Amino acid sequence: MRSPLPLLTVEDYLNAEANSQTRHEYVGGYVFAMAGASEEHNIIAGNIFALLRPHLRGSSCRVFVSDMKVKVQDDIFYYPDLLVTCNPQDNHRYFKTQPSLIIEVLSETTETTDRREKLMNYQTLDSLKEYVLVSQNQMQVEIYRQDDQGNWTIQILGQKDDLILESVGLTLTMAQIYEDVFNN
Known about the structure:
Blueprint: H1 10-18, E1 24-27, E2 30-33, H2 39-56, E3 62-65, E4 69-73, E5 76-78, E6 82-85, E7 95-96, E8 99-105, H3 111-122, E9 130-134, E10 141-146, E11 152-157, E12 162-165, E13 170-173, H4 174-177
Parallel strand pairs: 4-7, 8-9
Antiparallel strand pairs: 1-2, 1-5, 3-6, 4-5, 6-8, 9-10, 10-11, 12-13
């Protein structure tokens, strides 16, 4: 009988990840390689970053794109497409623990994980106010928002709607999010 592979410790994961050419997410000792993204995925994430960065300049908030991990629990680390943290004490060099906004651009390979596992795990973060899922196949955005009582609501936006990011005080149009992806 074969013995199971040993689980990777958080310390070993973080050390290996610092020197890895491939990004890996970490859940309970298991490591999952991240696939490359499509052109549409990259453009959408870039469009949103390009609008968030100047908006947040001069504030206590910082925006990170795809290569910054978020530590959800002691044994869970994800790479969201974009994350914003507004806590100056959230200053670990290789991961953040206090995001107020997380945005994922959906892809065929990650959509189920983004909608289920990540949604449930991200909602355990006290600091998180908004979790946004952006479709790359159609002009549709879903925003999960935590209210003052800690309850989560969902809003599904279409082509004619604006995305209001209350956590950072910014409104984005679908034309801005999907610029150079769909002919508007």
